[in-house]
Amino acid sequence: MGYTDQRFDVNLSILFTELPLLERPAAAAAAGFKAVELWWPWIETPTPDQAELDALKKALDEAGTQLVGLNFYAGQLPGPDRGALSVPGEESDRFRANIDVAADFAASVGCKALNALYGNRVDGVAPALQDELALENLVVAARAADRVGAILLIETLNKPESPLYPLVSAPAGIEIVDKVNEATGLGNAKFLLDIYHLSMNGENLPDVIAEYAAKTGHVQIADNPGRGAPGTGDLPLEELLDLLKNAGYDGWVGLEYKPGDRPSAEAFGWLSN
Ligand SMILES: O=C(O)C(=O)CO
Question: Where is the Xylose isomerase-like TIM barrel domain (predicted)?
Fold first, then answer.
C-alpha cells in the first residue's frame, strides 16, 4: 500500500503545459511515467485535421507513453467552458461531430477511457431541456466508446470554481452514470472520481469512496487547497488512494495538479519521499 502501489499517469493538459503539446509525452516519459491523459487538445475544433491527430499519435508512440484517458471536446477548456454536450445549438453539434473523431483517435492509440464533461448551465435554457440533450448525446458517446472497447467517464467538478456546472456532487455524477447505462444497456458509463473536485465540494471522501468505488472508472488527484502536488495542501491523499484500492479500485490515478512556480519535471518529488 502507499504511493508506490499505485498506477499513476500524468495529465498533460495541466502538467508540462510549458511545452508544446507534441513535446509533452517525451517530457512525461523522461520524468519516469509510461502513461498520460489529456483534455481535448484542440480547443478551437472538435474535428482537427488528420495530420494533427497523426502527429499526436506519433509523439505518444515515440515517447513510449500510453494514453489512458482522453476528454471529448469540451469547449474552451482551459477557459470558461466545462463541456459542450448539454449546451444546445452549436456546442452540442460540435460535441456530436467530435464523438467519432475522439473515439477513433482513442482506438488508434489504445486509449480505453473517454471523459465527457457535461457542460455549464446556460441562461434562458431550461435545465430539463439541457439534461434531455445531455442524455441523448451521452448515449451516442457511450455507444461510440463501446465500439472501440472504451468506457465513458462522467466527471463531477467543484462548485466554487465551476459555479455553472450542474454536476458538483458525487451523487449527481452517479445519477448520470446510471441513467446512461440504463439507456444503453451497455454498462460502460463509469464515474470519474476526482478527489480534488470532491474535496472542494466538502464531500466526505471516505464515504464517497466506500459508496462509489465499484462504479468508478478513473481517478484523478490534486491536493487541496491550491490544486497543487500531493503534500502542498492538507488532503490525506495516500490514505485515500489506499481506501480506494481496498474498496477494489485498481485502475489509473491521473495526476491532474498544477506544478506551481517551477518546471513540471520538478513537481514529482513527493513520489520518492
Ligand atoms: O476542468 C477540470 O478541472 C477537469 O478536471 C477537466 O477534466
Answer: 26-272
